[in-house]
Each structure stands twice: as structure tokens, then as C-alpha cells.
Fold each of these.
Amino acid sequence: MPDPVRLDPREGYDRWSEVYDDELNPLVILEEPVVRKWIGDPRGGRIADVGCGTGRHALWLAEGGARVDAYDASPGMMARARRKLASHAVRFIEHCLPQALPSPDDAYDIVLFALVADHLPDLEAAFAELKRVTRPGGRLVFTVLHPSMNLLGITARFTDPHSGGEVRVAACEHTYADYVMAPLRAGWTIDDLLERKADDTLAAKTPRAQKYIGWPMLLAMHLRKNG
């Protein structure tokens, strides 16, 4: 088999955007119920979806009555999201952390930072910027590919719809400690932390999970800004 094509995050996600919503991605299947539980009823909330991708979370948040600002570094992903949310008043902004978000201090009740951090070298700077735009008492819902997947050589990847070859998106090999300590150093408080493993139930939903059974695939944290 040919070697995988390796792309930087912006180009990789631009290309992935063509098929992202069509895949039964086991990580997404594990992640979405966690995010929905922690966010709860979004009605009336001001929410930033940082790394919105194709708008999979922004859609249900907007339909649930939240005021959503959706940020992403990939024009391809955002184009998909804009089409998906064309009937909703979601504000889309092209942006890449840890650059400053074009929002004032204390702007959001909730920030969602989903499946992005493994592509960012400076985690502490990213968490610090997210804290700046979150109101006192506000919350951050964070998810990422579990760092144990690094032991299997697994990073964000997809099958190119044109060539049929594997494409891998450049990622950083952050550790479990990196993901825990970065938000703490940035001043966040961790309210909850969980891991989700691949199991037979997940494999029944998507055969792609079969080879990961028993391995943690998802790391997630619910954080709060105090003061």
C-alpha cells in the first residue's frame, strides 16, 4: 500500500470536509453524548464553538436556542457548516488558536473546544485565550482524541474520496498530563474529567472501532472559570 499523505491541519481538514459528515467516526460517536450532557439546555446561552468543523455541534446548539459564534481554521469545513446552518443566525469566523479571538473579554457563557487540541502546539496559550472570552462562572467543554491513541500510532486520518488513499492530519503528541495541566496553568478549574473506551457497543455502530476495543479513545473535561 502507498504511504499515507500527510497534510497540515488547514489543508487536511479542507480536504476532509468533503466526507467528514458521511463517516461513522467512532470518536465522534463517543464524544457527542458527552458534550450534549455537559452543555445541557443551551437556550438563551451565548456559546462559542471553537473548532466548529462542519457545524455538527453548532447546529443543535442553534436549534436549541443558543446564540452561537462558530470558529474554525479550515475554510472547507466552514463552507460545509455555513450550508448546514444557512437558516440559523450563527456567526462564522475563520480563526486559529492561540491567536486572539475577535471577541471581548467575558463574552461567552459556554465555550466548546471539541476535537481540536491535538493539532495545537501551545495548549496553555490556547486555554488562556478561551478563558479570556468566557464570563466569570462560565464553562468550557473540552474533548480530544485520547493520548493513548499515540501508542497505536493513531492520529486524525481519513480516506481521500478522490484517490482512495489515507490522509493523515499533522498532530502533536501531547500527553495526558499535558491536557490536564495546560488548563490548570491557564487558571481553569476542572469540574469533571472522563475517558471513554471503545467497546462492543461502539463496534456494533461502526466497524472502524473494532480494532480499538479496550483502548481509551476520548478524553473530555468540563471546566469552569472562577472569578
Amino acid sequence: MIDQNLRLASLVENSETEVTALLRLGTENRSSIAGKIVWRTPKGPKACQIVAWCARPPDEAGAALIIIRCDSDDEVVNRLRELNEQLNILKSELIARRQVERGLVGALKARDDFVGIAAHELRNPLNVFHLTLQLLYRMPQKSGNDIRGILDKLRAQLNRINSLVDHLLDVTCIRAGKLELDLEKFDLSELIREIVRRFAELHPDIPLVVRVNGAAAGNWDRFRIDQAVSNLISNAIKYGLRKPITVAVSVDDKKACVAVQDQGIGIAPDDSERIFERFERAVSQSHTEGLGLGLWIAKRVVEAHGGLIIAEGQAGRGAVFTIQLPLSKEQHA
């Protein structure tokens, strides 16, 4: 029977007295009630630990709601339940550990790949630089024009090394959340014309077309926007199969857009997001140069301005990269 101390409740089959007493006590108490119920079964008595509490007190509109939770009093069953709970905990910890391990393996692989790529990309211009200097020292009788040509090659390789180093520094800066913008008002159309002229001088064999529809003035970081657009044009030159490249500028009431379109290898549907990740390329390393950081940096620069960068295209049919920049300074926050 259930006594006032609630130490034991003995329930006999087809008897409602004990259950009634338990329910009555449940409605009269504001805290949970602990006890024990013993059931008669064909295999003998079966004890259950119970906890009962009143979820809704009785009122004039309806009866009380009593919730009873039963746990087996069988020591073996309880032990098995504890072991099962421990196994579930260990299983969850194992899954979490494997996820961490996979992340670490991926990070180590990315690091090793990056070190290999960086060493390869830095070694090539340094080798050219070294060999060209040797050539310059061995031929002191060369004319001024010949020497100027050699010095131009050295300058080009030195600029390439500086660009690689700048990209590495930008990655560190962006990852640390220290990409600061020096905003000023300028005409984006004029900046695009300047950038295209610069690339046209470096690549006179590749047709570069500029399409500008009026001025596009806004508050941006001139250096960083130059960097982002230059990275897109460099990417178009790298994968454009030396076919014409078009750079178009347009503007509406809220944003300015810069679209860089090439007629090269294009973008596979599954790669439109992947190519914006660090150290990623449209094709394998053996087919192209670079650290695979240009698009990643461009995306972070545009996003720091509150803008958006979109890649569109089809494999074998060229690609279009579009930068959308808000015109108002408030949208940079």
C-alpha cells in the first residue's frame, strides 16, 4: 500500500485502491512523489520505481492531470540501461572525434598543398630572375636597348614575386579579420579604364574591350577595388584561351556593377562556388600558375564593401564574373 511517507506502493491485480491513493496524493502535492509499485506477473512479482507529479491541478472545468514515470527496479535491467547510455555517449564522442580528425587531416593537406604551390610559384620567377642576372653580367657589351629588354624581364618577374607575396599577406590579414577599408569617393568607370589599359600593355596579344555607360561614382576603397577587378581580369586571361575579354561597367540607383567576360574554358556547374575558396582553381595546378588565391581575395574584398560577386558560365563556353557594389557608404557597414 502507499503510505504517507510514500516509501512503498504494493499494487494487486484488479485492485484500484492503491492507484486511487497515488492519484489523490499527486493532486494534493506541488512537488514530485517517489515510490514503488509491485506488479504480479506469471513469472512472479515485478517491481517498478515510480515518480508521479501533477502537471495540471484539478479545477471546476476539468480533472487533474497526473503524470507517472515508471523505471524498472530490476538491477540487471537498470545496469543494462546504464551501459546502453554510456555506449551512446561513447558513440557520440567517437563521431565527434572522427569529425575533428577529418577536419585536421583536411587542414594538414591544405597546408601541405599550399606550401608546395607557394614554393613552386615563387621558385619559377626567382629562377628566371637569377638566370637573367647571370646573362646580364656575362654580356657587358650589349647595347642600351638590349639591356633595357633584360631589365624589363627582371621587373616583370619581380612584380610577379611581389604579387604572390601580397596575396599571402592579404590571406593572413583577411583571416585575422584585419581587412580595413580606406573609403573615398571616385568614379569606378575611370578606375576600370585605367586597369584595362594596364593589362593591355602587359598582354598586347589579347584583345581587351571596355564598355562603360557613363560615370559610376561611389564610396569605396580604390586600392582594394583595383585589386579585386585586377584579380578577375587576371583570371580571365589565365583561362580565356587568349580570346577577347570584355570588361563592362553599369550603374543603377543602388549599385554599380563590373562584369568581366571571357571566352575560355568556362565553369562547370559544380565549380561556381568552389573556385572562390582558398587555393582552388578551375583546372589542376599542372595546367596553370598561381596560388589559387585571387578569386578568394576578390570575394572577401567585395564582401567587405557590402557587395556581391557572382560567377556564371558553362564548361567550354566562357565565364562571366560580376561584381556588385553598393553606392551608399551606409551599406558598407
Amino acid sequence: MTRLRFGLIGTGFIGRMHAIALHAVGAVFDDIEAPLCSWLADADADLARKAAAALRFEHATGDWRELVARPDVDVVDICTPNYLHYDMALAVLAAGKHVYCEKPLALTPEQADELATAAARAGVCHAIGFNFVRNPILRHARAMIEAGELGQVHGFAGRNLEDYMGDAAVPHSWRCERRLAGSGALADLGSHLINLAHFLIGDIARVQASLKTVHATRLPRGGSQSLPVENEDIALVLVEFASGATGSFNISRVATGYKSGLGFTITGTRGTLEFDQERMNELRFYTADDRSGRRGFRTILTGPEHPDYARFCPAPGHGLGINDLKILEIHELIRAIESRQPIWPDFAEGARVQKLMAAIEHSHATRAWVETPR
């Protein structure tokens, strides 16, 4: 095996997280070759040089197309704002290179479908950054569901609540514009929740939704005239799964006090599971199989018996962090490339999530239940 050479586009919060994981993954996992941090691209050459020095990449460029064309880049890692994903990912696929793109995959279902089709035809590895499903405790939750420990699952109450735009004084940015961000809280937070629901419960058959923009205008940074907020702050969704289970999504970027409020309650005929991302190393479990007088929720702490946790720590209960989930994600990507095996979540899943977000918006517009496109 030869070391894969990564090119990183974008060095904001998410780009830095990816860079940390690229440098760490070889130390955590010995079943892969540690990747090379080869090229880095940012908005201009000066920014790129500074970021490359800080993040320890060998080369820098202010032109992302140059990075994609480089013969010494095997995998392109896209960590840019939403509106750039489509053009960049399409160019990477046209160049016949592996691609790792942050969510959401694109701005529209049509763009996402085109990318998923192009990825399948290109015969390369294509991954999308839904890192939360890499959490060992959530993989354990799915194993418990599949083993029947909850009985027949009939309910999923999911949420993704944050307050990063809760204050009306937060400046207007690209996240507020349809042409740059697409949807609002749905794209930023809801995409993760939808992917998590797919991971744990399966396909969603239909939805009914209500969207709301709390702060209709915001001042741009340094500006004096307010600009309209063109997408939603809150999405409330009723869902019906193909399995027959029913549920709800509560999604908000203005939920005061919540910082990383991804979570769920899954109910079945014999038990219940609860998870909160702000306590990401804990899973709460209730089983009706306990004898009378002993029934109650118990807390399962992540430990070395849960796959991949032991790579970080031999002791249970010490906990993983958000950056560790990116390390796990990049490990899966490298392993998939080296073994020539598919990875999930991939661009097909990215397109499936995009279609469901569009169905949610259509449901709000029509005030009706909307069937999910297949």
C-alpha cells in the first residue's frame, strides 16, 4: 500500500477539524497507511499559505481547481460553504479522484442526484461528512435495535437543537441566503438528524412539516442596512418510516441554551433508547424484560467493548470527543480506498438526505403530507 495524498479545500472550523483528523488517524489506527497532507487550497494564495503552515500541509494554492488537477493529490477533501460543494465535487469526479465532501452534498436534489450518479460512474470512493453516525455508542444502539432488544420499534423522536443564530445580533452571512446555503437549519442541522434516522430506523416514507424564520432580517457584519433571512430557523416535522414506525424531528438553530443538541428517543414494544450528543458517550436504555421492582433507565457508558473505542482508550467511561468522530470517519474512508470497498454514508446517501429535505420544504409550502422520493 502507498500513502494516500490528501488535498484539503477550505480551512474554516470544519477544515481544521479534518486537518486534525488527517494528522491523527495514522497514530490511532495501525491497519492503514497514514495519509500525507499534501495540498491545501483557500480563498486566496496568502490565506492558503498561512493555513498550510498552521495545519502542516506541504503545499498551498489560492485556486482550488489547481489542487484538483494536481497529479500528487489522490483524495480531495471539500470543507467549503454549501454552494461550492456541487462544482468542486463534480470537478473531482471528472478528474477520476476519490472525494470526501462535507454535508449537505449540494443545494438541490437535482444537483445531489447528478453528483451521486457521477460518483457511481467514476468508480472512485465517495464519502459525505455525516460523522455523528461514527460514534461507537450509536453503532451499539443500532446493534441493540437489530438484535430486537427494544422489541418492535414504533417511535422515533429526534432533535437537533443549537443556538448559534439565536441572538438577533448575530450578523447576516452566507448561511442566510438561499443561493449560497440552500435551506437553513434543515441543511445545517437537519441533514445530520435525517442521516441518523436512516442509520437507526431506515427509510422515511412521508413527511409533514412546518418551517419558521424567527429573525426575518439581520445586519451584515460592519453594515448599517438589514438584509432578509431567506431560509428557516426552525423545522418541525412529522415522519412516517417505511417500517411503519412514526416519529418527529425538532430542528432549530435558534434554540437558546443548546450547543450540540442532536438526540433521540426511540421507543419499542419492549424497550426504549435515549441519546444526547452533549453527553455523547452515554446511552440510556430501558427494558421491560427487567423484573418488577427493578425496572428503570440504566446508563451505558462507551468503553473498549464498543468497536473502535479501544483504539483511543483502554478504559471505559473516559469518553471520546467530536474530533475523534472525524478520525473514525477518515479511517473508514482510507480503509475503503485501500480495500476497494464501498463506504457509507456516500453520495447516494447524501442525495437521499437532500431529497428528504426538499420534501420537507414542499410539505411546508403545500401544508400537506408529502411522499418521499425514492
